[in-house]
Structure formats: C-alpha cells, structure tokens
C-alpha cells in the first residue's frame, strides 16, 4: 500500500457514542484508550519516528484490543445486500480499504491466492469505505472467494461501523477475528514494497504479511512452510 491513511484517526474520539465502555467490546476498548494513543502517535509521526509509531500501534493492539469482541455488524455486499458477521460461522479476516487507496504491487494477487487456499477455514472480507458505485470497478480485481462490502457515512445504519472502524485505526487495516468475533490480531494492511521492488518480491512480501496474520486464525494448520507461488 502506498501509505497508511491515518488522518481520520486524529479526529476519531469526537465521533464515539457507541458500544460499551468497559473495554470488553472492541468499541469500548477503543473509546477508553484511543485518545492517549492518538496523542502519542501524532507526536511520533510529527517527528517522523515511524518505528515508534509502529511500536505504539502494536502496543495498543496487544495490550487493549486483542481479546475484545466486535459488534455483530451488518455489512452490505455485492453478493448479498446485507449480511451479519455472525452468519459466516467461521473466523473472519476483514481488510479495510477505500477505492482511492491504491493497493501496492502484488497485493491483490496475494490476497486472491490466500483466499483460494483458505476460504474453507476463514471468511475473507474486503470492506471499502466508499459508496457502492465507487467500488464496482476495483471489486472486479478480487476473486469469488473474497466477499466485497462497502460502507459510507451517508448510508443509513452505517454510522456505527464507520465511527468504530474507519475513524479509529485508519486504513488499510487488517482485523483477524475468531468465529465468536473476538479480536485475535490487528495489523496495518499488507506489506509496503518500494517502487523498485520486482513483482515477485512485492507479491511475496504481501503474501507473507497477510499469511502471518492468518496464522493466528489457523493455528492448527502448518502454513509457515508452504510453497510460495506467483500463479
């Protein structure tokens, strides 16, 4: 991904009026801890200390967000007009995007390959923060093993999910949930290969980045030694 879009994060705390505040829900934990995280991460990014920014993000996730429970959001998809997260009956991998947030080289093929391999065990969801007509073109790049959804501030009933996901950790962000919608891990999108990277290198970096996150949902499977392929 060219860059991580964090601007919405800086204004996030103003939007919250949803969820529990005891920290057991994802929304509640975000409400309790996001303000302090934003203050520290804003300072790190102002100082161009990208490493510290990542450490702060990882600390927020590991100390406060892992183990919390997602709300059973209702998503709008192209295949089915509305679908609840709980209806998947399996672990869920959600990657948030926007139609103008250009995937890095090799990112979409890596996601398609992983979805082809693991869709029986994990539900793959790409959630675009866009209106439906803006998503149609890019949605065609993903294979049928990935459910493409969309949400926008102007759509009825989308305010909750937009406030709790879009205006908190920014995007692209990867959420890894177990079948009970508990957070197993959260990561920043995929890899970020530079412009000089070959297609094979970029594909491999993205494949490994997403595969690492999936490993937390597929502990019983040996995915660390599988062969990489660019097919």
UniProtKB/TrEMBL annotation:
Q: Name one GO biological process term.
A: cytochrome complex assembly
Q: Which residues form the Thioredoxin domain?
A: 64-205
| Keyword RNA-binding included in the entry's annotation | no
What CDD domains does its record include?
TlpA_like_family
What Pfam families does the record tag this protein with? AhpC-TSA
Top-level taxon in the UniProt lineage: Bacteria
Which cellular compartments is it found in?
Answer: Cell envelope
Show the GO MF annotations. antioxidant activity; oxidoreductase activity
Instruction: List the GO terms this entry assigns under cellular component, sorted alphabetically.
Output: cell envelope
InterPro entries, per the entry: AhpC/TSA, Thioredoxin-like_sf, Thioredoxin_domain, Thioredoxin_ResA/DsbE_sf
Instruction: Tell me the keywords, alphabetical order.
Output: Cytochrome c-type biogenesis, Disulfide bond, Redox-active center
- Supply the name of the protein: TlpA family protein disulfide reductase
């Amino acid at each position: 991904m060219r860059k991580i879009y964090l601007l919405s994060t800086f204004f996030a705390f103003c939007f919250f009026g949803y969820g529990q505040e005891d920290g057991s829900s994802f929304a509640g934990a975000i409400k309790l801890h996001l303000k302090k995280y934003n203050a520290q991460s804003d300072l790190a990014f102002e100082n161009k200390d990208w490493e510290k920014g990542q450490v702060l993000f990882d600390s927020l996730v590991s100390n406060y967000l892992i183990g919390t429970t997602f709300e059973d959001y209702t998503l709008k998809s192209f295949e089915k007009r509305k679908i609840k997260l709980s209806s998947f009956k399996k672990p869920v991998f959600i990657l948030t995007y926007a139609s103008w947030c250009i995937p890095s080289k090799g990112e979409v093929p890596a996601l398609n390959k992983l979805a082809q391999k693991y869709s029986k065990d994990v539900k793959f969801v790409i959630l675009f923060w866009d209106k439906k007509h803006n998503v149609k073109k890019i949605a065609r790049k993903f294979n049928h093993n990935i459910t493409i959804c969309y949400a926008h501030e102007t759509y009825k009933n989308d305010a909750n999910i937009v406030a709790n996901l879009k205006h908190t950790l920014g995007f692209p962000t990867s959420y890894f949930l177990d079948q009970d919608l508990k957070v197993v891990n959260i990561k920043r999108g995929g890899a970020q290969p530079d412009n000089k990277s070959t297609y094979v290198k970029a594909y491999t970096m993205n494949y490994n980045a997403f595969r690492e996150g999936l490993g937390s949902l597929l502990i019983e499977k040996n995915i660390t030694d599988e062969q990489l392929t660019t097919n």
